[in-house]
Amino acid sequence: MKRRDFVRGLAPLAFLLLALACTQAQAQPQGGSDSSLPLLDLLYVVVVEPLFPLLAGAVLFMWTRSHLIAAGLSALGFGAWGAVYFSRLSVDGPLSGALYGLGFDGITGGLLALAGSFYVHLIGTEARRLGKERTTIVHAGGIAFAATAFVLLLVTHGSDKVGIGLYLVMLAWSFGAAYATGSFGGLVATMAFALVAMVHGIWGAAILSGARDAGQAYLAIFAVPPLLLAVVATAALGRWLGGARSANSAADK
Questions:
Q1: What is the DSSP string of 97-131?
Q2: How far apart are CA 83 and CA 102, in angstroms?
Q3: Are 132 and 29 contacting, i.e. CB atoms less than 8 angstroms apart?
Q4: CB neighbour list of residue 141: distance below 8 Å, 6 or more residues apart
Q5: Residue 8: enclosing H or E segment and its boundaries?
Q6: pTM value?
Q7: Using CA atoms, how far apart are residues 216 and 195, in angstroms rounded to an integer?
Q8: pLDDT tens, position by position, 4-57
Q9: Are 158 and 198 in contact (CB under 8 A)?
Q10: Cβ distance 201 to 24 under 8 Å?
């Protein structure tokens, strides 16, 4: 296992977790209200708001080929939006709200954009190393699993049984895909996104049920990294066994 592959697999997760904690802290209720959000508002908070900076970072990196430029432009753009938004809501005055929105949304948007730009770079690296077909299988499968996991946990109100079942499927996919394709970094990154999507599904279900302060930021910070360790180990084992199989096949020829 090359250190470069390991770092590339975990870099998107690091930025994603930081930004996830920030966005969830922002979305905690003001004044202790326990009223549930309308569905469209909920989808905006747990889906659209985190996805926009991710996509912005990915697009800007493909355009500029620079992680810093992609993150910087995203931070400025989303920071400006946050300044306008919170300047209208702050009880301490427009200037105080604008400064809060500029800093909060700027940092969060920049971190998410950095995760998106690193992820696009990772896809390109794996496409050159593994080929487009294998890379497509790994990343398309991982993204589809993440979307499915989010929906299932949202509609089942964060069911523990569904969550455990999804995690077992994740481990099986991590081993099988790594064994068959030789991917490690891309597989770990997609499963990291899937874990975060599962957290958002549970968090969204809690908001819909009226439990606005469900402590999901703590779940993201403390539960996701240990869960990912098993995925990393499983993917590493699958890739090692797949590499050993390929080496034996080449030696027999």
A1: HHHHHHHHHHHHHHHHHHHHHHHHHHHHHHHHHH-
A2: 5
A3: no
A4: 173, 177, 190
A5: helix 3-26
A6: 0.81
A7: 13
A8: 655 555 566 666 666 665 655 555 544 344 445 677 777 777 787 888 899 999
A9: no
A10: no
